[in-house]
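Researcher: Sequence recovery benchmark, item below. Answer with residues only.
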């Protein structure tokens, strides 16, 4: 069953700041994982694991890297250019040929052109939710959200489903890890929430730039006072007990030393410390990824899946950091309304950083023999309006070009997973407005991801009321992306 698409779109010129962070209700300090400590998470997972793992035999070593581009990247400036379209559609940039005949990309992505034989471009995914909140929820959960706005999930994000199905896969690392900006670590900022699966399946968040000098993983480390007591397990466990009492004074989650000990083991494991330590990588490789936040997050993602994490989400949102000067007519995320930024000037800064980070990750997965085990997906929540509009920039006060929200067409990059690569899957019409060939939905992508991970996406988990909810209500694996036998 394929869900039909509507023609809804957002083409206003009003200020659209994109996802907005909410203040966390509970904070677990330096040992926190979302709203709960690791001990709490382990306890909750054990209590909810009676139904089994849901992971097919032989699939436990597979993994996914999900690069999230919030705001909505412009498909007609990146992977679905229309040089023959009228000027008000095609934009300023030109396509360039790649090392695969028939696969063209933007001229600002020259590193993509050199390794196109190692990835695929999908040009025909579409949905019907034009608001950032609705778009995030629709894309990241594989469900039609109850409301078209807001970022609080009413169904679990895909990463949370994977975490639930992989809870019996023990590697010394959390099975679901995310990387974000320090002030945007809450699960509701990008609709990463676990909804009716419960808070034990939210991502273990790693905020900040992993390439910065002195970078520490606060959620996997203890402060100086606590570190002096690591040899004294009693005091450390008492700290977990105090944390638990602060979170749940009702006593529903009673202190259980066995889970606290597991939490301590995870927090102090060599696997965790090693996986997060980018200094163990050769300087040349770190340079290839780029000495900026996006590049070092991409490198960290590779290290985490190589160390055993099942699902790693890295957010590439703000390019203006790690020494990249702020562009007055640029914007924080990929939300390229004319009121937010000058679409083309922002791209001149943003695209080369993106080009470097993503292609380094693609090439590194192949160089390390991870291309069959690891599936890479790079996307945002929707595309941008095919027709360019101009308005006064809120920062510049001058007329500048931009594009608005457009869920009717979007492009994305996929690689690895043992699939045949060097493909263009689907197409849009001559103005990039809607799918022309091979129309797909986000659910088809997620069915492909679940298949790679050995997860039966037809199985169900109970929602808040106890009703069985299938992992995906519809969708089929994309045949072009299935592993080559």
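Model:
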């Amino acid at each position: 069953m394929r869900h039909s698409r509507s023609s809804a779109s957002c083409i206003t010129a009003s200020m659209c700041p994109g996802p907005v962070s909410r203040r966390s209700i509970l904070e677990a300090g330096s040992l926190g994982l979302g709203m709960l400590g690791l001990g709490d998470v382990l306890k909750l997972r054990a209590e909810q694991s009676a139904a089994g793992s849901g992971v097919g035999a032989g699939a436990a070593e597979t993994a996914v890297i999900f690069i999230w581009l919030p705001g909505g990247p412009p498909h007609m400036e990146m992977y679905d250019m229309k040089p023959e379209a009228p000027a008000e559609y095609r934009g300023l940039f030109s396509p360039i040929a790649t090392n695969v005949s028939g696969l063209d990309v933007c001229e600002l992505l020259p590193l993509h052109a050199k390794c196109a034989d190692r990835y695929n471009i999908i040009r025909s995914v579409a949905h019907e939710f034009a608001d950032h909140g609705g778009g995030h929820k629709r894309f990241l959960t594989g469900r039609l959200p109850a409301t078209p706005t807001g970022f609080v999930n009413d169904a679990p994000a895909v990463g949370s489903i994977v975490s639930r199905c992989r809870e019996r896969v023990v590697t010394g690392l959390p099975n679901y890890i995310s990387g974000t900006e320090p002030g945007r670590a809450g699960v509701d900022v990008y609709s990463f929430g676990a909804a009716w699966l419960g808070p034990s399946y939210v991502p273990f968040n790693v905020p900040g730039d992993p390439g910065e000098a002195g970078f520490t993983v606060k959620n996997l480390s203890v402060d100086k006072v606590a570190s002096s007591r690591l040899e004294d397990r009693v005091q450390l466990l008492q700290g977990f007990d105090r944390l638990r009492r602060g979170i749940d004074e009702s006593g529903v989650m009673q202190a259980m030393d066995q889970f606290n000990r597991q939490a301590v083991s995870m927090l102090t494991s060599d696997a965790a410390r090693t996986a997060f330590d980018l200094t163990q990588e050769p300087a040349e490789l770190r340079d290839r990824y780029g000495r900026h936040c996006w590049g070092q997050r991409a490198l960290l993602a590779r290290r985490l899946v190589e160390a055993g994490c099942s699902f790693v989400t890295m957010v590439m949102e703000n390019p203006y950091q790690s020494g990249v000067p702020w562009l007055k007519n640029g914007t924080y995320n990929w939300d390229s309304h004319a009121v937010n930024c000058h679409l083309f000037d922002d791209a001149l800064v943003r695209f080369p950083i993106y080009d470097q980070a993503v292609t380094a990750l693609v090439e590194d997965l192949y160089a390390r023999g991870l291309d069959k085990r690891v599936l890479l997906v790079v996307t945002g929540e929707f595309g941008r309006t095919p027709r360019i509009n101009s308005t006064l920039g809120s920062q510049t006060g001058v007329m500048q070009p931009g594009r608005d929200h457009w869920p009717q067409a979007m492009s994305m990059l996929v690689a690895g997973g043992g699939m045949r690569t060097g493909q263009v899957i689907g197409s849009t019409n001559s103005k990039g407005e809607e799918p022309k060939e091979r129309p797909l939905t986000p659910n088809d992508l997620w069915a492909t991801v679940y298949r790679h991970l050995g997860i039966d996406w037809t199985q169900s988990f109970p929602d808040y009321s106890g009703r069985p909810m299938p992992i995906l209500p519809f969708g089929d694996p994309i045949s072009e992306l299935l592993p080559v036998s």
